[in-house]
From TrEMBL:
K(+) binds at residues 58, 125, 161. CDD domains: YXKO-related. Homotetramer. The gene is nnrD. (6S)-NADPHX binds at residues 57-61, 129-135, 158, 261, 329, 380, 445. Coiled coil: none annotated. Catalyzes the dehydration of the S-form of NAD(P)HX at the expense of ADP, which is converted to AMP. Together with NAD(P)HX epimerase, which catalyzes the epimerization of the S- and R-forms, the enzyme allows the repair of both epimers of NAD(P)HX, a damaged form of NAD(P)H that is a result of enzymatic or heat-dependent hydration. Catalyzes the epimerization of the S- and R-forms of NAD(P)HX, a damaged form of NAD(P)H that is a result of enzymatic or heat-dependent hydration. This is a prerequisite for the S-specific NAD(P)H-hydrate dehydratase to allow the repair of both epimers of NAD(P)HX. NCBIfam families: yjeF_cterm, yjeF_nterm. It comes from Spirosoma oryzae. One of its GO terms (molecular function) is metal ion binding. This is Bifunctional NAD(P)H-hydrate repair enzyme. Its cofactor is Mg(2+); K(+). Its EC number is 4.2.1.136, 5.1.99.6.
Length: 500
């Protein structure tokens, strides 16, 4: 699913109006009806509801929503925040329609006009939408602050008032902090950026049948992975396949005290369909791997506690493997760096690079040019900062991410809520699955195993990253549904992986 910028969103509305065709007012009615259908599914008709409307089309939505909820007998109070002398045409039209069914529309010009908000009420925020062009100030700012202070449940229409759709806010901007954002048709970039979490809440999309052809041809680097899109990436297995069909992966993982990382990556690699797996670990990990992952072959490093790349059989020969995954639990010993140095030039196919392998790269940036093209790098934000440089805000981080992927022709999975997968062509796919239960040690190692398995099976790197990250998050969601997110372990995630 595409994520469009604010100008494209406006053009999409206009394209819908022109091509469907539909009158702007009827499109607003459709959007408001969609919102109301969502609202009645979530809040009973006894819910005391206060709707705050601005003077633009977001406010117009708010007035239409007020009328539609009143028709359904919700106890609704309407407040218009009068911050400017002029209203939009569709606001005025909906204002007239609302006045036909109630005289009781209140106006907020000064702070003293603000109502008291209680915990058992719902506030609908329709003050400012995608037309935001400057920080909220004056009475708009006072209203937003009052809503944020209140114990009421807050639902924003389209986007929280004060939040920009696709550009950074300043640190002191005043922005609604909603429990829910109910938006239209497509996600907005602001919704998937971690620092905006409290300005978005849970977000929901309402299909208002905007012009499909416009969406199909609109250029954008930003995508949001939908379940059907992820499922389409899945390779079907040939009935006459054998284990050779699904590749032979080599995992280089573990060091003394962190052999668990190798175990997790190995298990998830097997659970993700690899044909054959060899795990190369320091000597201290040999028996552990053999006993805990019997399906994998194990190769013992020449060193007792860290990876050096040497072994009794001459060390790992990456050329003989379909794919190499490196990083979980390896530490940053000088011998391990030397191994990485030797290894990179010998690998010709895309590999997976994670954790301390990334940290070693960031401390030895001359190695960047040795990373095999189309490899998948899986940094969390701190690792990504080490690979690049600090950023001021999520938008700057996104630019760094796209630049890095393009410059080094790699796929970068920047992990976190809505993990961002940047491709060598500069596109970014935001993941839609996962939950805070995954914020626990070892889940990143599991992801490395998953991605290594997919590359071994012949998935293209971008497809492997999009599908693997989606499936990993979905496994977390399945567990959270069954027993809640707290206490989830990385091993649980491996068990919950499903490829169907
Ligand atoms: N165009 C359409 O066909 C549709 C639009 N919809 C709604 O329309 C909204 C966009 O409407 P608008 O473009 O009128 O935008 P807004 O409703 O966000 O209002 C923009 C107006 O507020 C002013 N403004 C911007 N920042 C301000 C600030 N900080 N303080 C005070 N005033 C400020 C602008 O100068 C402009 O006059 C969407 O968010 C959505 O809710 C929906 O009804 C769906 C259909
Ligand atoms: N709040 C969250 N929502 C969704 N996914 C999350 C969240 N927190 C962490 N994750 C996922 O969990 C994994 C954590 O990986 P990482 O930080 O490398 O942990 P570790 O190094 O302990 O294995 C990543 O895939 C990340 O996207
Ligand atoms: K709003």
């Amino acid at each position: 699913m595409k994520i469009l910028n604010v100008d494209q969103i406006r053009a999409l509305d206009e394209s819908t109006i022109k091509h469907e065709p539909i009158a702007p007012l009827n499109l607003m009615e459709r959007a408001s009806m969609g919102f109301v259908n969502w609202f009645v599914d979530h809040f009973p008709a006894t819910t005391s509801t206060k709707i705050f409307c601005g003077l633009g089309n977001n406010g117009g939505d708010g007035l239409a929503i007020a009328r539609l909820l009143m028709e359904r007998d919700y106890p609704v109070e309407v407040y218009v925040v009068r911050y400017a002398p002029r209203e939009s045409d569709d606001f005025m039209h909906n204002h007239r329609r609302l006045k036909l069914i109630t005289e009781d529309v209140k106006y907020i010009e000064y702070s003293r006009d603000l109502p008291t908000l209680r915990h058992n009420e719902v506030v609908i925020d329709a003050i400012l939408g995608s037309g935001l062009s400057r920080p909220a100030d004056g009475i708009v700012k006072a209203t937003i602050e009052a809503i944020n202070r209140a114990p009421a449940t807050v639902v924003s229409v389209d986007i929280a008032s004060g939040l920009y759709v696709d550009q950074p806010n300043q640190a002191n901007d005043v922005i609604i902090e909603p429990d829910h954002t109910v938006s239209f048709q497509l996600p907005k970039l602001a919704f998937v950026l971690p620092k905006n979490g409290k300005y978005v809440g849970k977000w929901h999309l309402i299909d208002i049948q905007l012009h499909k052809r416009y969406i199909d041809i609109a250029p954008t680097p930003y995508y949001y992975t939908q379940p059907n899109e992820a499922r389409l990436l899945l390779h079907q297995r040939d009935r006459y396949s054998n284990k050779g069909t699904f590749g032979h992966a080599l995992l280089l993982a573990g060091s003394f005290g962190k052999i668990g990382a190798a175990v997790l990556a190995a298990r998830s690699c097997l659970r993700s369909g690899v044909g054959l797996l060899t795990v190369h670990v320091p000597q201290c990990g040999y028996s552990i791997i053999q006993a805990s992952v019997p399906e994998a072959m194990c190769e013992s490093d020449g060193h007792q506690t860290v990876l050096t790349g040497t072994s009794r059989v001459g060390g790992p020969q990456p050329v003989t493997y379909t794919t190499v995954g490196i990083g979980p639990g390896i530490g940053k010993a000088p011998e391990t760096l030397a191994m990485l140095r030797d290894l990179l030039p010998t690998i010709t196919r895309p590999m997976v690079i994670d954790a301390d392998a990334l940290n070693l790269l960031s401390e030895n940036r001359e190695l960047y040019s040795q990373i095999p093209q189309n490899s998948i790098l899986t940094p969390h934000p701190k690792e990504f900062e080490r690979l690049t440089k600090p950023w001021q805000n999520d938008y700057e981080k996104l630019d760094l991410l796209r630049d890095f992927a393009k410059t080094h022709r790699v796929v970068v999975v920047l992990k976190g809520a809505h993990s961002a997968i940047a491709t060598p062509t500069g596109d970014v796919h935001f993941n839609s699955t996962g939950n805070p239960g995954l914020s626990t040690g070892g889940t990143g190692d599991v992801l490395t195993g998953v991605l290594t398995a997919l590359l071994a099976q012949g998935y293209d790197s971008v497809e492997a990253a999009v599908l693997g990250v989606y499936a990993h998050g979905l496994a977390g969601d399945v567990i959270a549904d069954q027993r809640g997110p707290i206490g989830m372990t990385a091993s649980d995630v491996i068990d919950a992986l499903r490829w169907e």
